[in-house]
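Today's session is about reading a structure prediction critically. Students often jump straight to the picture, but the first step is always the sequence itself: look for stretches that repeat, for charged clusters, for runs of hydrophobic residues. Only then move on to the predicted structure, which in these notes is written as discrete structure tokens rather than atom positions. Here is the chain we will use throughout the hour.
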Amino acid sequence: MTKIQEKINELNNLKATQKSVFDAHPDVATIPQDTLTEIKTRNEQIATLQTEVKQLEEIEAMKSAAITYNHSVTPSTKTDAIIPVPAIEFARVSKVKNFKGTVAGKSADERAYRFGKWFKGAVVGDQATKQWCDANGIQTKAMSEGTNYLGGYLVPPEFSTDIIDLRETYGVARQVARVVPMSSDTLTVS
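Below is the predicted structure for this chain, in token form.
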């Protein structure tokens, strides 16, 4: 288990403890003083762990950017030695369920990781993650999150197959609708 996974597990355990304490005391006015002190201490621990996890995620992003850096070879920089690209280890809490197989030479793990980075950068708006996306060839610049007419609802083509598969599996409307296969772009109903 990696350090970031340990921190995330510790963070989840503290949050679960907080929830159970609040569940045991529906009326916050009845919480004993010593329990309030414990709650405040746990809140401080949660804040600290959240900061640590964010820092570790930023370091992971820097590591990924460094590993996937491609230097273009020109005649003046060409060498006979081939430098192997190391495999990327993806930090995770559970097994990837919704990305399957290999598409365009990318494993399910890599596609899920890249999609998460795209979502955090393009939709959530995290600047460090946007930089990671730009450095790794994931388009975010032409899109403006939250503004649909500027492309806020668009998904890069790299992820379109996975999104369509997720829609087929989990889409609510698709589960109750009659799906009519089409052989062309138009369908005439008589």
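Discussion point for the tutorial: Residues 76-83 have pLDDT under 50 and may be disordered.
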